[in-house]
Task: structure prediction
Amino acid sequence: MKPLYISFAVWLVLLLPRLLSAQNTGTITGLVRDRATQELLPGVTVVLEGTALGATTNEEGRYRLTGIPVGSYNLRASFLGYDPLLRANVLVNSGNANIINLELSAGAQQLGEVQVVANRATRVATAETPLSVQRITTEEIKSNPGGNFDLSKVVQTLPGVGGGGTGGTAGFRNDIIIRGGAPNENVYYLDGIEVPVINHFQTQGSAGGPTGILNVSFIEDVTLSSSAFNARYDNTLSSVLQFRQRDGNPDRLQGNLRTSATEVAATLEGPLGRPDSGRVARTTFLASARRSYLQVLFKAIDLPIRPAYWDFQFKTTTRLGAKTTLTSLGLGAIDNFEVGVPRNSTPEKELILRQNPKIEQWNYTVGLNLRHLVPRGYWNVALSRTQLYNKLDQFQDGVEGDESRRILLTRSGETENKLRADMNGTLGRWAYSYGVVGQYVQYDNRFFNRLRRPVLNAAGNEVQPGVEVRFQTAVDFARFGGFVQVTRSFLESDRLTLSAGLRTDGNTLTDDGRNLLRTLSPRASLSYALLPTLNLNASVGRYYKIPPSTVLGFRDEAGRLVNQGNRYIRSDHYVAGLEWLPAPATRFTLEGFYKRYRYYPVSVRDGLSLANLGGDFAALGNEAVTSTGRGRTFGLEFFFQQKLTRKVFAVVSLTGFRSEFTGRTGAYVPSAWDSRFLASALLGRKFSRGWEMGFKYRAAGGSPYTPYDLAASQASYLATGRGVLDYNQFNTQRLGSFQQFDYRLDKRLNWKRFTLDLFLDVQNAFVLKNPGVPAYTFERLPDNSGFATTDGQPIRPDGFNAIPLLLANDDPSVTPTIGFILEF
Result:
């Protein structure tokens, strides 16, 4: 069946171009604003490089380019007194108009410096964040080989970013590891609204999961800041990821339908209501729904796991007046993960049946953002609500309903209501911002987990005690904070820019949460132009993060909140680097970084820093901890980016680093994310007649892992379905190195009002083995009907007569996807 499907797709790709002889055209439209004041800019020149096509923004700051032959272009915006802006690899189709809003930064442009200033067109840095920042546009996301339209996977091509197999987590997960920090050290913003959950089947208390929620059709660009965070951002230790959504088409209804090997997605957008006379509509909308059918495919190929999900997303933008804009957005997901009995059992499938819980989750975020322009600035007010429900069940041997065999139970919910307000403005050569945030948090959890059974010796005496965790909790508390940031340029042509910020945060739950002096968070950065195209950048900052609600809300069996004495986790960053812009579409960066952690939570039970956790599907933090952990990560990063030039684009990033944390003993040991080096390279080529090809290669050193406690594992396996790690040998062993090669081929077909993109996307196309942590199990009988034993008798409940076995976890996984995107 599969060869027939592939043959049909190839035949379709080769035949249809012969049927399409007419030249089709597309449209690009959008708004141009001043980045600092958000004022709409009339008179800005917007052109497509290499063509005679161009336009000037009208009195409302809107431009419109029509009659563009389909293909890929570089879009350039320029205006006297502003640095030019380059938007590379803009794809023009006949099916959908391309809505691209642009923001220009005021610069020291002089008539004699036109060429020098032009080279800054590809610069990503801002005055507040002059280094450790990268940006990916929607075009780069959609064409990313192996990305499968998943933003969390796409950002792993950037320097210092591990995860998905390169940072100590399984290759099918989206845990984002930034410069050796844990997955829950990152924060995510969608159009200025904080979104705690961006992945399906999220690990509560962390952020990872196997696939992303955000619909790439909504995204205009993604900005990753891995240090030098603006003071407006709270609760981050490793990175701030900003997802900026575009506006809906103000002229007409349009949409797309996308299918792949895992899901089907539909998007619709357009104007709401009638437009003003001679103008575009005041309100536009975007809406989408997505449904997976992995459960059907996995059942067909006899895999025992059955993941299924829905997700939904919307955005509306309304111009309430010439100076006021109201944006609403929403994001939600419904996740279900079950384990089914396979038709043909194997030891590996039996292991899956024993180790994986049944999962039911749902979550949503909704928000409103009101922006009002004032002279030389603007203020924002954002109100949002996030809610998460998490239900997990696991039973010994998969016998549901028998409470004596229960391994895991979670009934947990979190709700966050957040209000943010900030003012942003300029005064001469000064730029400033200040604001406050208030948040009301509710958390409840009913939890049980059998971690291991008692270990008995031959005489029946207990050698190691069994461990079970059982509690029920409900807490509610307030969080609050404020910030101020100022920036000023100095010297001739603004060669030197300095920025400084200060924020503080508190809460009503922890013992010292109301003491705002304990979380004073100063940060400063500078950028100095050594040459017109070469900048020296540096930053230093102190950042704080409140422990997860799973930690703060934990109660012991007596009902006491035992973690209220925990402090905010602290991270101090020191970063310096160079940025070279030799050509308008070319960018090099070289940076060194050092991060020092204090007050990291350490498990009372295991003596392990929670900085090493977060890469599984249960929860992080349901235990007693102390704020005694320390950590350090340091390294060097190189990044090269060539935007679309002569139909070729490329990205190369290299990172060498160390990541170490302390536990109960106070000694530094390699963290779970200490893979020592990360490398990625991406190369794309545009061809004529709508063909495009892309290649991506990723590599990483082997991540540390902890061997099993063989005695405890043997005693516990039948009851828990998994081995017990020996934390006395924490991270003393290492996996082999990680490598993956991905390939993508696209063919776009354009009709008058439709575009069809047929694509082939293959993850791990070279079928490379990528070692994972071995799995502990018991040897089974040749016919797989039960467990083999040393004495030929039925296996004992304590596993004493079992034959332990470590299953290698290095089978190569290849994920081919044949799909299409229909725009209309």
